[in-house]
Amino acid sequence: MGFTHICRRIVFLACFFPLGVLAQNLIPNPGFELYRNCPRHLGNFKDDVALWTTPTDGSTDYFHLCSQHMGTPENFNGAQYTLEGNGYAGFYAFAPGDYREYLQVKLKSPLRKGMSYLLSFHVSLAERSDFAIRDFGVLFSSAALSLNTKKALTRGKRYSIRGNTYNYQEISCAGFINDTSRWIRVETEIQANGSEHYLILGNDRSNKETRTRETRRYSNKGAYYYIDQVELREHPEPNLVADLSRRDMDQGGFRLDSLQVFRSLLFEFDTYRLSGSGKEELKSLYGFLVTDPTLELHLGGHTDVTGTAQYNQRLSERRCEAVVSYLNGLGMPTSRIRWQGYGASQPVASNNTEAGRSRNRRVEFVIRKIGSGAANRDN
Predict the structure, then answer these.
(1) In the predicted model, what is the mean pLDDT of the chain?
(2) Distance (Å, rounded) from C-alpha 179 to C-alpha 292?
(3) Which of these, 50, 61, 62, 348, is most buried using a 10 Å CB contact count?
(4) Residue among 127, 109, 123 at smallest CA distance from 7
(5) Which residue has the higher pLDDT, 259 or 15?
(6) Which residues are 131's β-sheet partners?
(7) What is the pLDDT of residue 11?
């Protein structure tokens, strides 16, 4: 079973809030478990998967444990275990000739005007991809799309359909999503205009506009991603989100006085090792902090519920210490960093599933002006 990272939308709000009692997931068949037909062929997603379809002629794929031809974990583009259950989907987010694939679903109920929602899904780059991307498109529409094209679903194409109303948002991640072994959690916030009945996921940019990184596999297949566990829920604290979104700090995805989660620092079980993508994110944070010596960093380390309280407390502290040590190595003085371990006392997701536990194995942070007050202790 893989584990998740959180990839926040940089240009909006990079905060994470405990969800408490979760609101209803408005995505039907969110893990692609229900199917009309056990998949036997490539490109048959819209016919095989229950309640999902495709908005274009791009041949999105469906993988399920029931199939010998389109099974899990091994398939034509590599191998990946499901995040949960027995199925997931696969699509080209970048390919030669602006070729694109998308997923479309009708929401259980339309979004309510003025409300704030949290959208999340998990992706993993297929092993035979020769590119990785860092941007995904989220398109809501009042009516289902059905376009006779296999190319990028650009603004011009979707507005060629008269009478349809859209709410489009791009998710720009802190780094390229190039992990082929683990599931990466992508999450963003949606402000509803009240016309959202359908959700479409993919990459709406043309090849020229898409930010890519070569993986050195030279397959000439582009960027192919597996996707699992799509969720859309009402935000639990919309008023707080609105207040925070008005703050004037929005540089590099970092905000003052806002509780944030390191997008790439969700830890494997019983470890405090920093991943390569986690180190890249810390470099970005260091680059932000070093430009203003009046800022200090406050860290909070967390674990899942597995293990004793005493062990988890020490493990959460070590996760903070790993972050501090790496920042020290980049040149950040310890005097500008405060930290505290919380063990398993502050979960942000259920500890009953691996996906939930992986979200709880995290380090949170707040950037404050020096002397403005601190919740964390010096170490």
Answers:
(1) 84
(2) 32
(3) 62
(4) 123
(5) 259
(6) 214
(7) 29
Examine the pLDDT at 338 and tell me if it is beyond 70.
yes
Show the tokens assigned to 26.
């408005």
Half-sphere exposure of 19 (CA within 13 A, CB side): 20
Higher pLDDT: 291 or 318? It is 318
For the stretch 30-46, pLDDT in tens is: 999 999 999 999 999 99
Q: Which of 175, 141, 176 is nearest to 155 (CA)?
A: 141
Indicate the range of 251-255, 294-298, 307-311 predicted with least confidence. 251-255
Instruction: Taking residues 164-171, report their average pLDDT.
Output: 91
Q: Judge whether 338 and 296 are in contact, CB under 8 Å.
A: yes
With helix as H, strand as E and coil as C, how does the chain read? CCCCCEEECCCCCCECCCCCCCCCCCCCCCCCCCECCCCCCCCCHHHHECCEECCCCCCCEEEECCCCCCCCCEECCEECCCCCCCEEEEEEEECHHHECCCEEEECCCCCCCCCEEEEEEEEEECCCCCEEECEEEEEEECCCCCCCCCECCCHHHHCCCCCCCEEEEEEECCCCCCCCCCCEEEEEEEECCCCCCEEEEECCCCCCCCCEEECCCCCCCCEEEEEEEEEEEECCCHHHHHHHHCCCCCECCECECCCEECCCCCCCCCCCCCCHHHHHHHHHHHHHHCCCCCEEEEEEECCCCCCCHHHHHHHHHHHHHHHHHHHHHHCCCHHHEEEEECCCCCCCCCCCCHHHHHHHCCEEEEEEECCCCCCCCCC
Q: Is the pLDDT of residue 1 over 50?
A: no
Confidence of residue 236 (pLDDT cuts 50, 70, 90): low
Model pTM score: 0.62
